[in-house]
């Protein structure tokens, strides 16, 4: 029951990228699978925006660090296009307005004076240093320095280089708040911009500041997020104007996740269900339910007791030593060995609660088992796909005299399995939360799920087991047999894809807000096929 | 070894000796410039009049970029002073500025005595009494003043 397992996927697939790259052509079949689109992204074009991906409706862009820096610089320049805003000030303004160029412009042109005041961009110094002074006193160490060793922000308060360095360094080491750093003088709000940081901070501090600025661009911007895969440094820009509610995003690291909740991608099941399910899996509450279902409290000391064998004559452990009957929980002494006589209303509230808890635990276990085994089955499939590509494909090509292109159907089958295991896994979280009283809906969903599952099992069996004969040390010579296998696997792949399309569509239609229609819709197989062709 | 923090504390000490603000005094402990003892005298013509309240100030090498930890050693009764003597004062937390020195810190604390902020109470009994029962509040303060003469 560890939701942390989910993240393993990312590592498992990491090396897939290169392997599948060789198949970088003609992948129409995966149109609606964002994950596949990026499997084939060319790793070499580091400098271009990967936005120009094959998917036309793709509503997201993966940003490498160079892309992020480029975009950030572009935005700063756009703000600095206003003559009265220098580059450093533009960066500070954007920090204050969550990196929205239009918000900065709107605010600036609505009330420049007010914006300058809140952000700390003073037009002229508020503190006049004597014009003819050769030396100024630093406001922090109170020593006198020649003008060349004194620096001020736009306010004019003088501090020496070394005190500035300490002040800036302390702030940078305190965290990203340093991006909104102000003059050290109390109650002076003058902003300290990156140009001053670069002039006055140590090399290490400058790097940290730079890092915070980059992070702020992603984290404070509503349209961007970091890829949540461990160790991945890419970010995702998501354009919500795209079609509807497809939040699936697939990073260059090949981790796919949901833009909306940043959990592992769970298309067809909504974010609320996913977060409830993950919380449930990780929470201790199930342990409590277990204790409630499988144990009874000692009638004397109330400690939970699990009965593992033997007779009904229970003796509580030290120091309680209370003797009682497991069935009626009465004291053994009074009860003399039997409690066989029925007395109406005997089953008390506690007993009923225990019964209910037991049922609810059984239900949860049912769905959890299936959720978890699809999860591990998917991880296994990812590993099998990798092995297929790195080891078996070549041998198979040799023994059956097939070209790489001709063997593509095997990779396709495995990719389909990986994707279907993911979808199937989440349908179990969905199923768990389906209300018991919506029988028609539940039945229909379970029907589709069942169809999809048995299709997937056939496909998985074929890709995993039936193929073995061709992978053995002594494979049959090129023959009709292999062609039959090709036909069978391709067919199973297509059939399974259709089943899952239907399942996903049915679930998504429910989310679209017409759940009560689910059982009334003309969901005959023909109708579904028609819809899919659209 | 002379670090920026120690240099600055030496300068704070010199300033406190040559130009001490009214009603405060302070000095580093022997052999440790990072730990100071200080005394704040209760302002004249207030219930605090005549009190001698002892404090300690613990500095770090981040001073003056980070404030010291300041604590009353004498028993106190004040809306913004906790039972353990630590003080709830903005300039010792988020409103700290490196332009403050020991004299400024002690002066601020001195003015906090007569000018508490009952909205962020560290001692709820004192805060309630300050707003609801000034007579009793003043009586408790005079008790504290008397105790300050006898404590170690």
From TrEMBL, chain A:
Q: Which residues does UniProt call coiled coil?
A: none
State its cofactor.
Zn(2+)
Q: In which pathway does it act?
A: Protein modification; protein ubiquitination
| Taxonomy of the source species | Eukaryota, Viridiplantae, Streptophyta, Embryophyta, Tracheophyta
Residues in the signal sequence:
none
Keyword Phosphoprotein tagged: no
Where would I find the RING-type domain in this sequence? 134-343, 138-182
Domain of life according to the entry = Eukaryota
Q: What is its EC number?
A: 2.3.2.31
Q: Which InterPro entries match?
A: ARIH1-like_UBL, E3_UB_ligase_RBR, IBR_dom, TRIAD_supradom, Znf_RING, Znf_RING/FYVE/PHD
Q: What is this protein called?
A: RBR-type E3 ubiquitin transferase
Task: Please report the organism this UniProt entry assigns to the protein.
Answer: Trifolium subterraneum
Automatic annotation (TrEMBL), chain B:
Instruction: Write the signal peptide boundaries.
Output: none
- According to the entry, every stretch annotated as the UBC core domain falls at 4-150
> Has keyword Transmembrane helix?
no
Which InterPro entries is this protein grouped with? Ub_conjugating_enzyme (IPR050113), UBC (IPR000608), UBQ-conjugating_AS (IPR023313), UBQ-conjugating_enzyme/RWD (IPR016135)
Q: Which residues form the active site?
A: 88
Q: Name one GO biological process term.
A: ubiquitin-dependent protein catabolic process
Instruction: Enumerate the UniProt keywords alphabetically.
Output: ATP-binding, Nucleotide-binding, Transferase, Ubl conjugation pathway
Keyword check for Nucleotide-binding, yes or no: yes
Which Enzyme Commission number(s) are listed?
A: 2.3.2.23
Q: Which is one GO molecular function term here?
A: ubiquitin conjugating enzyme activity
Cited PROSITE patterns: UBC_1, UBC_2
* Record Gene3D superfamilies: Ubiquitin Conjugating Enzyme
Family, per the entry?
Answer: Belongs to the ubiquitin-conjugating enzyme family.
Q: What does this protein do?
A: Accepts the ubiquitin from the E1 complex and catalyzes its covalent attachment to other proteins.
Return the protein name: E2 ubiquitin-conjugating enzyme
